[in-house]
Structures are given as C-alpha cells and as structure tokens.
User: What shape does this take?
Amino acid sequence: MRLILLGPPGAGKGTQAKRLEDLYGLKQLSTGDMLRAEISSNSDLGKKVESILAAGDLVSDDIMVEMIAHRITKPDCEKGFILDGFPRTVAQAESLDDMLENHKLNLNAVIEMQVNEEELYSRVQKRAEEDGTRADDNVEIMKNRMDVYRKQTAPIIPYYLDKTMLKVVDGMQSIDDVASAIDMILKID
Ligand code: AMP
Assistant: This one.
C-alpha cells in the first residue's frame, strides 16, 4: 500500500504515519525527518538546507525529488510506504507520478487531514514546549510555514482531487478517531 498524508504543519501527519507503519508494516518516509537527519550529521546537504528549514521555507524541488526517488525503491519500502511531508508542491507531485510510473507502482490514497488554524498553532506551540528540538516550532516561523502551505502546498489538493484520489479526514478529532477514519478509508479502497 502506498499513501500520501497531506496537511498543514501540526495536522498530525507524523503521528498517524508512525501508527500506520506499525500497523501495516509500511515505511514512513518523512522528508522533514530526513532533512533534520542531514542537518544533525552536518552533511553537505544538511549545511545547504539548515537555514531554509529554520526559516520555514521550502527546500528546492530538485533536492526533494532526488531524495524521495532514492528512497522509494529501497527494500524497506517493498510492502509500501507513507509519504509524510512530500509532495509539497505541484511540481513534486508531478515528479512523484513519473517516478511511480517508471517503477510501475500505484498510489492507493491521498489523505488530507483538515485542522483549523487556531488548533494548528496550539499544537505546534505544545510540541515546542514538550520537545523543543525543532528550530521551526515557534509562532513567528509557524506563520511563514502556514503561508508557504497555503501558497505552495495547498494547490496539490485540487491536483489529487482531479485524479479522484483525494480523501479527507477531520483532523480535529482525537488521535484514535483520526486513526479510525484513516483505517476506514484504507479498507474501503
Ligand atoms: P516537516 O517536518 O514535514 O514539517 O518539514 C520541515 C521542513 O523541512 C519544512 O518546513 C521544509 O523546510 C522542509 N521540507 C520537508 N519536506 C519538504 C518538501 N517535500 N519540499 C520542500 N521542503 C521540505
């Protein structure tokens, strides 16, 4: 099974992706986690992207597409994968389509998690207080991340709607209820 979890920062994509990884043996592919690992290891790529992540802007499509292209063919993705944080632009979505076609793979669902803005801010603030390791988890940067989401990422919603692949879940519910809603979608499909 191959899925995309879509939604603004704080929508709960990572939480649900981790659960799906445990439940279905799918690999969670979080591009944000991959980039943070590059920064932690002080790699050339990490040095290149550090200030971009800190500002809440997007890393270039070329870098992101290459990162995912290498990843989806690895053995740990054989059972399938959950894309968490990718694609984030229409160009990335188009490249993903090409990649999947080249490998004769299909997508089972694109799940959009909808959460209102007030709740997103409060979740990110809570994450900053509890975790404190993410340079971009603060109110100022969150404003930019939301802006970037609206302008650059939200256009992929009609892209998948046109392909009749988009499913929507109410991400305002409890973690368990969101999980049940996702399970329902995956069983229906
Ligand atoms: P996330 O952990 O998904 O919130 O991602 C953290 C940051 O990593 C984002 O604010 C971007 O700077 C960068 N990033 C993650 N995924 C992508 C992507 N698909 N395209 C561009 N930038 C990304």
